[in-house]
Protein 1
Amino acid sequence: MKSPRWMPLTVLVASLASSTNAFADSAPTPMRAAGMVLLLLAPSDIGVIDSDAGTDLALGWSAQLPLSLRQRLVAGLDVNPGAHDHTWRGRLAYRYAWRYPFIGAGVTLDAAGATWSPEFGVRFLHTQPSMAEANPALHLLARMDLAPGFDRTRALTVLLGWTWY
């Protein structure tokens, strides 16, 4: 059986995330520096978006700013290659996280306008035993794009990805 193309990236992410030493302990090695750049450029989420126009691939880049131990401000950009009505989406949201589940609500903007975007997700495969510090993990999340009047669902997105916090 042939190894999937994404396997080297998965191994790199797992090896970087499994380190318990803080990055400030020493100067980054060239391999770690290259891995950090790759993590910034690679999508943090991959999944599908289902809208009136059909189902398409969704790639997402997002960043979380910790406001407290459990609260995050999330900014993100989704690119949906092949989609006709949602080729890109920007999002600004608030997220509240427990160790495993998280919930959030935000505003999404795309070419068709603004929508409300509630989300629910589950984190798993944590690298640290608590949330008291940076705790890389994988996540699975579902997000809806609701029309401003809450009368219509414009899209539903399901994403698998990783987070640093």
Note: Residues 1-24 have pLDDT under 50 and may be disordered.
Protein 2
Amino acid sequence: MGKRPITFSRRLISSVIPAAVGIPLLVVLAASWKLQHFAIEAIDNSVGNLAERLAADIDDDLGQRVNDLMTLAQSPLILDYHNNLEYRLFQEAEANRQALEEFLGAFAKRTRVYPAIEYIDSGGNPVVSLKGFGDGVFSGDSAPVYFLRAIKSDFDRILKLPDYGYFISAPTPMAASSKRLIYFAKSVKGASGQALGILVLGYDLEVLERKIIQGKVSGQEAVFIEDENGVLVAGRQALFTEDEV
């Protein structure tokens, strides 16, 4: 059986159909590439904005901790306590100590970010040791001196810091608690510049964790904070926990 001759109309159709199919396919592929490119760019922008926003927020928050430390260290109650001790006015000194404890306790309740606040004299003796915040701040002999337990090796170095200097610890587990703290500490100076003691604020890392969670765009990002040595400070590095896999 012979082949049908290829007519002009068949030649025309055979040349038009590939073009008619190919052009929309090319348009779809181009549109798909553009959408993917746009989505990736949008994700990059969102992540970049998230990182910048969180970094600025956390920087402001940690800066406020330093401001709190510097302000509290200027309390006249500390100087009055040491002056009365020097003149052997022990009853007056105890009244100053109790007033300082009440002042720092009220501050802990108001700010709700410091589960531990301590003032330790230059001999390493606790003057005020507070734990807890919010509905209850507890003190007394039963309150362990968290800072001395955690950062004892740095005590003398902190004591010798200039008046404008301060110390920030690595994340440290809080004794008898599941909390992790960053300690902000400052040497308190007397009228002649002598070191009287160290004021310590134990900052709750759960505050940073909440900021990270609240700052997420979709809730699926792996957002975390590392120190300069690559040690995890807050957040989580994995996208999913073992229970979510």
Note: The chain has a mean pLDDT of 76.
Protein 3
Amino acid sequence: MDKARRRAGLTLIEVVAAMALMAGVLTAALVARGRLTEQGQRAEIRQQAVELLTEIVADGNEAIGSGSFRRGNFFVVIDERSPGSLDTLGLDVRTFSVYPADAPGAMALASVERFVPRPEPFASVDDRIGGAR
């Protein structure tokens, strides 16, 4: 009977080991939940940036040149370049990028490049009145 009574419960070492195992599992679950929440927030911000970029690009912005502006929680940067390989086609490349306004130096959340017609150079006064005499 004495043996049966001794084996009825857990020893102190078994209880401590079980608690340590449960603490490890609980910690892993909380870390995974935190990462999942953070990932969801980043995805939502990127989705907002893509929607803003879609709206800006769809506005027919051929008159917009290089520059930047703030819209809501984002900075929009527009960069224009003229690669030599597009000279014969008369095209420039305009890059639209969206950055988080509250994180200077952060990577772009969304970016898109478009080909736009290269503007015609201004004519000189002599060309407009029929050339120099």
Note: Helices lie at 2-6, 12-58, 125-128.
Protein 4
Amino acid sequence: MAYLSNSRIFESALPGEWRPALELLHEVDLVAHNPEAGSTKSDQAKLIEANLMLQARKLDEDLPPSLLSSSSSFKQWFSEAVLLWPQFALVGSPVHVDTIGLTTLEKYDIDLPPDSMPIDKLRHALERIFGWNEKDLKAVEEKVTRLTRNLRIKRKIAHILSSPFNGAKNGAKDDAQHQLAVNLLVDLYGPLPCRPGDVDVVISATSVFLCLPYDGMNLTCADFGERPEPERDRISAFLKRVQDDMISLKGVRFPSFGFFDPALVAPALMNRLVEGFHDEPGFEEGIDSAEVMEALKSMVTLLPLAEIDKYLVHDVW
């Protein structure tokens, strides 16, 4: 049975004969990120490529008919995959807002930055390899554009939600920035008696993380125990729902999860989001609130502040 197959996709190990090829792939990464390689980098890469192709031939195995280059569908799906690949870098980068001052994401480079592979070079390569004419390749690009419409909606939403924070310095613990964080929480989750400093916000290109410092049903803020009881009760009830939905499959809105009720989102915020698309290229026909909400639902996650790093690495990078 072929190892590159759906039936083996979740297996934890590969056969031993794959080891030389995997080691060569690791060498590619080392050379690519070696600042001392200089002018020899190209020669090193060519040598590794030659050895890698030799190893690849040893691993040759029967492929499903649809994956064979001779199949009628190969040209179509391979071209779609090539044009789709650069879109992945647009999902997690950049980070627009960070009221916490995190450093975790700095340690995780994007494999293919958005500006590292101009789309015209990809188009020319596809035209050369597969003999695409301009009209048919344009049709493939239009299909990819339709498939990634939700990505563009999310990126625009993230930009709109980030804009009020633009005047505040990332990581600065000032009242203005933290009031904006409270405002965003209230816009997304309804009226809550939160105070500046109760909420932190991280907004990436396609995700919104609202971070609360809590333990159990209480905020861990120094003054929480001194607040009026009605305030503490409302926040505790909110945190209970947050934690109940955190462990329930009901709250999964992949890639987001946890408590989020569209009915609580402020109408004024929805209007602002919809209006933000009026002059957006690619949305000349307009967009309705239902499509915006569908994207927003899978962007927003409410997290305990103490655990934000591990979620960022998983969900943003």
Note: The beta strands are 97-98, 200-203, 208-212, 214-215, 218-219, 300-304.
